[in-house]
Amino acid sequence: MKIALLVMDEQRIILDNMYAAMAAEFEQCDVYRLNSEQQRHLSNTLQNIDVDAYDRIVVMLRFKKLLRQVNTLRQLKALIFIDHDTCQNYYSGKYQGQFSAFYKKIPWAKVLVSGNVNAEKLQQEGIDAVYAPKGYDQALIRDLGSFRDIELAFVGSIKNKIYRQRQQYLEALQQHYPLNIIRTESGEPYNQMLNRIRFFVSADVGMGEYMIKNFEAMAAGCIVFAWRQGEEDQRMGFQDKENIMLYSSIEEFGEKLSWLRNNPEQGENIRAKGRHFVENHYSWQHSGKKVAACIMQPLRKRVKEKFLFFTRYGYKYD
Distance between CA atoms of 170 and 190, rounded to whole angstroms? Predict the structure, then answer.
């Protein structure tokens, strides 16, 4: 199978090892890295790509750039989207409901979604959605075995409006516990910072799925406190007090933090199991292969639809 993979040329999370793991599963996988201007004008960009030479056109571009380019995307055969942001479709914010509306305009396209429950919600809306897991960069994130001088921390962005609930909850936790909210550069500085943290506090409130930071922190040897995501917990293989610490309130967080402080040996066991778990299930090496398997699945038959256009002579169907 021959694949054209259209991706963003610059993004904070480095996905090269996922692309490499995917490419290894295909006869041919050509990666096209598009800058902001090329993403904004896909009709021009695609003129330089022989799209008919590929069995699948796989798109992993910025959603806000795709929104107004439905007509261009509808021209592509065997179209697949890899979407790690579809969770925004189901909570209050700028893109609430917009992912559903967008994908319904291209009903034959397959959408690879990074949350089990969110994939099922899209399926119920008639969209060909399939769960394909996120992961972490195993070449970058690792446990260095260094001394952890920061007890409680979150590393990442909270200022974006998308993360309003995350910000509110982390700031509420700060009122009761010595929680550090830290920003750092990508790459090795990020890995070094994770390796200084004993307890990584994740607060993906309202997301419905787990963000990549959970996997990264676990791989770096942190004990991760993660906000419960309901049914998604079990499907992801997360087991409370086994490989992760799950919580649903500030009170529960406090009780479990106290328990860990008083039971360091059990905490070390959770830390080790968490690291081994993500190493064996959620590295980009593993996730890339699973994404590739989803891409190989059969696609819906494309049906030519009629649309009403306004011309100088009135309305007509095309």
Answer: 19
- How does pLDDT run across 237-294, given as a tens digit for each residue? 999 999 999 999 999 999 999 999 999 999 999 999 999 999 999 999 999 999 999 9
N-term to C-term CA, the chain: 33
User: Which CATH topology does 150-282 take?
Assistant: Rossmann fold (3.40.50)
Does residue 160 sit in helix, strand or coil? coil
pLDDT at residue 77, rounded to an integer: 87
Q: Record the pTM.
A: 0.89
Both tokens of residue 315? Answer: 């309305």
**Tokens 């004990």 — which residue?**
223
Task: Round to whole Å and give the CA distance between 84 and 213.
Answer: 13
The third-level CATH classification (topology) of the domain covering 2-135+286-313 is: Rossmann fold (3.40.50)
> Is the CB of residue 101 less than 8 Å from the CB of residue 127?
no
**CA distance linking residue 151 with residue 179, whole number of Å:** 8
Residue pointed to by tokens 């003129």: 47
- State the Cα–Cα distance between residues 176 and 199, nearest whole angstrom: 15
Per the CB < 8 A criterion, the answer to whether 128 and 110 are in contact is yes
**Rounded Cα gap, residues 131 and 111, in angstroms:** 9
Cα distance between residue 83 and residue 165, in whole Å: 21
Q: Quick one: tokens of 314?
A: 């009135």
Of 83, 86, 93, 37, nearest to 58 by C-alpha is: 83
Q: Quote the percentage of the chain above a pLDDT of 90.
A: 80
